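To illustrate the input format used throughout this study, we show a single complete record. The first block contains the structure-token representation of the backbone; no residue identities are included at this stage. The design step must infer an amino acid for every position from geometry alone.
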């Protein structure tokens, strides 16, 4: 269900909804870098980002890993291979439902759009896999069973979406409309930088841009669980924090490590009166 995997940045967040209910799917000065209207590449070969996911009263309910594996030729296309894995851990995995979802995206280095995607999922004892070939030029997507879908411009698979957001123009108030292809269905969302905020996580202090997501077309949850993403206001555009507020409890996805490591910012020195 799309409700389970709505944005890989919080795919564990939304996968927990299956343990609560089974419902139908939703049909420093860095201003120069951030204000640029040109798309930028968010890809660094070898980058690995790890997150802890806390939910309700559970200290850590899941783990999320996002990484750029390599850049090479795939099917004759110069591209990046990126992977996102979301899994439950601890009490949630033992008492509720074991979730282990792996998303692979192959992204064209020339236009930073996906041309192939794969998904391997496990929810309890149920396992599934799927794949899709995306033709951005002809605006079609061919799924594993041979079915062909018409797609609009700016269509992304789940894993590729996070990198699209990292590379977008972060001018405050500037809205970007994206389409997400998941389980042979298309969902349209709006992504908007709301404000600049300085936040503190276990990895340090960061100047960030807070990004809001809104469902344009879907059957429920047009606010996407009030999902907010905090991306560093620097050249790396690291997602250091994700928050969501579904009906079954608040969720926090927090960066715990990054390779190569980010440079945390020191608190501002106190002035004496």
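Output of the design step:
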């Amino acid at each position: 269900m799309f409700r389970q995997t709505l944005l890989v940045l919080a795919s564990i967040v939304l996968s927990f909804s299956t343990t609560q209910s089974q419902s139908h799917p939703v049909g420093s000065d860095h201003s120069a870098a951030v204000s640029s209207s040109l798309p930028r590449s968010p890809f660094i070969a070898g980058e690995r980002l790890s997150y802890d996911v806390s939910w309700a009263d559970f200290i850590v309910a899941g783990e999320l890993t996002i990484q750029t594996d390599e850049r090479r030729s795939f099917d004759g296309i110069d591209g990046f291979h990126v992977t996102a894995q979301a899994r439950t851990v601890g009490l949630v995995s033992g008492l509720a439902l074991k979730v282990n979802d792996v998303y692979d995206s192959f992204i064209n280095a020339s236009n930073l759009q996906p041309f192939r995607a794969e998904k391997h999922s496990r929810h309890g004892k149920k396992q599934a896999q799927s794949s899709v070939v995306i033709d951005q030029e002809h605006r079609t997507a061919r799924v594993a069973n041979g079915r062909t879908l018409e797609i609009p411009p700016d269509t992304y698979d789940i894993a590729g979406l996070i990198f699209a957001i990292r590379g977008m123009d972060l001018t405050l108030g500037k809205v970007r409309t994206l389409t997400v292809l998941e389980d042979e269905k298309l969902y349209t969302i709006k992504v908007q930088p709301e404000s600049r905020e300085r936040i503190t996580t276990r990895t340090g202090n960061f100047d960030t841009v807070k990004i809001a997501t809104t469902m344009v077309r879907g059957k429920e949850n047009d606010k996407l669980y009030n999902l907010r993403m905090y991306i560093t206001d620097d050249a790396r555009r690291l997602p250091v924090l994700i928050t969501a507020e579904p009906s079954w409890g608040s969720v926090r996805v927090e960066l715990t490590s990054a390779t190569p490591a980010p440079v945390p910012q020191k608190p501002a020195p106190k002035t004496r009166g």
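Structural context for interpreting the output: Confidence is low (pLDDT under 50) at residues 1-38. The two ends are 57 Å apart (CA to CA).
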